[in-house]
Specification:
Strands 1-2 form a two-stranded antiparallel ribbon. The chain is mainly alpha-helical. The longest helix has 18 residues. A hairpin with a 4-residue loop joins strand 1 and strand 2. It is globular and about 35 Å long. It is built from five helices and two strands, in the order ββααααα. 68% of the residues lie in helices and 4% in strands. It has one domain.
Protein backbone atom coordinates (compact mmCIF):
# COMPACT_ATOMS: atom_id res chain seq x y z
CA UNK A 1 0.00 0.00 0.00
CA UNK A 2 1.37 3.43 -0.87
CA UNK A 3 1.29 6.04 1.86
CA UNK A 4 0.97 9.74 1.14
CA UNK A 5 2.68 12.14 3.53
CA UNK A 6 2.55 15.94 3.54
CA UNK A 7 4.83 16.44 0.56
CA UNK A 8 5.85 13.07 -0.81
CA UNK A 9 4.66 9.59 -1.66
CA UNK A 10 6.33 6.78 0.26
CA UNK A 11 6.42 3.46 -1.54
CA UNK A 12 6.68 0.21 0.43
CA UNK A 13 10.18 -1.09 0.95
CA UNK A 14 11.19 -4.01 -1.30
CA UNK A 15 12.61 -5.72 1.80
CA UNK A 16 9.03 -6.42 2.89
CA UNK A 17 8.45 -8.17 -0.43
CA UNK A 18 11.74 -10.08 0.01
CA UNK A 19 10.59 -11.30 3.42
CA UNK A 20 7.33 -12.46 1.84
CA UNK A 21 9.29 -14.39 -0.82
CA UNK A 22 11.26 -16.14 1.93
CA UNK A 23 8.01 -17.03 3.66
CA UNK A 24 6.59 -18.42 0.41
CA UNK A 25 9.74 -20.49 -0.06
CA UNK A 26 9.30 -22.06 3.40
CA UNK A 27 5.62 -22.74 2.68
CA UNK A 28 6.49 -24.28 -0.67
CA UNK A 29 8.73 -26.81 1.07
CA UNK A 30 5.79 -27.90 3.25
CA UNK A 31 3.20 -28.28 0.49
CA UNK A 32 4.34 -31.78 -0.47
CA UNK A 33 4.34 -31.04 -4.19
CA UNK A 34 6.03 -33.30 -6.75
CA UNK A 35 9.73 -32.46 -7.15
CA UNK A 36 9.29 -31.04 -10.65
CA UNK A 37 6.52 -28.66 -9.54
CA UNK A 38 8.33 -27.65 -6.37
CA UNK A 39 11.53 -27.02 -8.32
CA UNK A 40 9.77 -24.90 -10.93
CA UNK A 41 7.91 -22.85 -8.32
CA UNK A 42 11.12 -22.43 -6.29
CA UNK A 43 12.94 -21.26 -9.40
CA UNK A 44 10.31 -18.60 -10.00
CA UNK A 45 10.61 -17.44 -6.38
CA UNK A 46 14.37 -17.22 -6.93
CA UNK A 47 13.79 -15.00 -9.96
CA UNK A 48 11.50 -12.74 -7.92
CA UNK A 49 14.09 -12.56 -5.15
CA UNK A 50 16.88 -11.75 -7.62
CA UNK A 51 14.83 -8.92 -9.11
CA UNK A 52 13.92 -7.51 -5.70
CA UNK A 53 17.61 -7.38 -4.80
CA UNK A 54 18.38 -5.18 -7.82
CA UNK A 55 19.12 -1.49 -7.10
CA UNK A 56 15.96 -0.52 -8.99
CA UNK A 57 13.72 -3.61 -9.15
CA UNK A 58 11.40 -3.84 -12.15
CA UNK A 59 7.82 -4.21 -10.92
CA UNK A 60 6.73 -5.59 -14.30
CA UNK A 61 9.20 -8.46 -13.99
CA UNK A 62 8.11 -9.18 -10.42
CA UNK A 63 4.39 -9.22 -11.24
CA UNK A 64 4.96 -11.52 -14.22
CA UNK A 65 6.93 -13.96 -12.04
CA UNK A 66 4.40 -13.75 -9.21
CA UNK A 67 1.60 -14.54 -11.65
CA UNK A 68 3.64 -17.51 -12.94
CA UNK A 69 4.20 -18.72 -9.37
CA UNK A 70 0.46 -18.69 -8.66
CA UNK A 71 -0.23 -20.46 -11.98
CA UNK A 72 2.21 -23.23 -11.08
CA UNK A 73 0.62 -23.77 -7.68
CA UNK A 74 -2.92 -23.60 -9.02
CA UNK A 75 -2.01 -26.07 -11.77
CA UNK A 76 -0.70 -28.44 -9.10
CA UNK A 77 -4.00 -28.26 -7.23
CA UNK A 78 -2.82 -26.10 -4.33
CA UNK A 79 -5.64 -24.38 -2.46
CA UNK A 80 -4.77 -20.75 -3.17
CA UNK A 81 -7.27 -19.54 -0.58
CA UNK A 82 -4.89 -20.57 2.21
CA UNK A 83 -4.43 -17.54 4.43
CA UNK A 84 -0.68 -17.92 4.72
CA UNK A 85 -0.24 -17.99 0.94
CA UNK A 86 -2.55 -15.06 0.32
CA UNK A 87 -0.95 -13.00 3.08
CA UNK A 88 2.54 -13.39 1.60
CA UNK A 89 1.36 -12.77 -1.95
CA UNK A 90 -0.45 -9.63 -0.78
CA UNK A 91 2.75 -8.36 0.87
CA UNK A 92 4.51 -8.61 -2.47
CA UNK A 93 1.47 -7.08 -4.17
CA UNK A 94 1.61 -4.12 -1.77
CA UNK A 95 5.10 -3.35 -3.02
CA UNK A 96 3.97 -3.78 -6.63
CA UNK A 97 1.12 -1.31 -6.23
CA UNK A 98 -1.96 -1.03 -8.49
CA UNK A 99 -0.58 -3.36 -11.16
CA UNK A 100 -1.06 -6.27 -8.74
CA UNK A 101 -4.76 -5.67 -8.12
CA UNK A 102 -5.97 -8.16 -10.79
CA UNK A 103 -3.80 -10.90 -9.29
CA UNK A 104 -5.01 -10.24 -5.74
CA UNK A 105 -8.64 -10.12 -6.88
CA UNK A 106 -8.18 -13.41 -8.72
CA UNK A 107 -6.94 -15.06 -5.52
CA UNK A 108 -9.70 -13.67 -3.30
Amino acid sequence: MIQVTETRVVSPDPRQALNAVRTLRRMLARLGLPDRVSSEAGGVLGQIEDELRMPDPDRGVVIARLERFTEILTGAGVDMSRRSLIRSIRRIAAWLGPMAVPLVVQLA
